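Researcher: For the record, we're logging two predictions in this thread. I'll number them. Prediction 1 follows.
Model: Prediction 1, sequence and structure:
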Amino acid sequence: MDDNQKMNKTEMLARANQAINEVAIEFTESLNERVRDLEKALHQNDLKKVVAIAYNLETEASTFGWPRVTRLSKWLRKIFSGDYDNKPKTKDVMKVLGALKLMASDPETPNDQRDEDLFRELYPMMGHVISDI
């Protein structure tokens, strides 16, 4: 590879990294609103929309470094698509939604310890309902 090709490759990687950073910022800025949209769809009993929003949150949170949001969103997606081992109680679904709302409440300054504690508290119940989360 000559110097010109190396420079083009370096420039392309820099542009790609910049684009990824911009999309990650956009995700972070819209996280709280998207969780509110999920809650709204749930209260409206629009299960297709719940599944779609949860899926998008799951995949994007995974991509941009929000592992607990990923797992909570995956759990909600599976619940509302009917893919569960044991049907969850409504109060448990609301606890997961509440934890997701709290985690997304200030995405600019995440509280990893709080989020980890919340997830550890919810995980046994979540694992009882869906074994693959």
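Researcher: Logged. Prediction 2.
Model: Prediction 2, sequence and structure:
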Amino acid sequence: MTPDPRNALALFKANLELQFRLCDLMRRNTLRWNEAQNRMIDGCASEFEASATRLLDAPDWQQVGFVATDLGWKSLQQRNCALLKMAEAVVANQSALQQDMQQAWAQWQHDCTRALKEASGTMPLSATFEELLATATRPALLPGSKG
């Protein structure tokens, strides 16, 4: 028995859709990282402007010394906050990417198994393989499913 070309086309399309989806996920992940970097740069620029303004507003050298001492402690505090925000961004970005990729793989698996299941009429399948197909096509694996 020759396989149905429509099934091969369905598998090809499922693989191509997965590649497109993974490329889009990488693009969106890069955009999230760029946004996090821009926030960090904006924070540093704002910190520098505030520090420079305080120094420029100092009426005498004694006040400049006080401001400079205070800026050292503020800078240390702000660096700790910046590190915390960066750690939060890392966790959020990686979690989002992991979840999106898991959904992409589940959808790909579902599409491929559906194509193989449709081909089962033309190709003999073992009972073990049929069980794997049944497991892989459960709705609970697909994004947005409640099962």
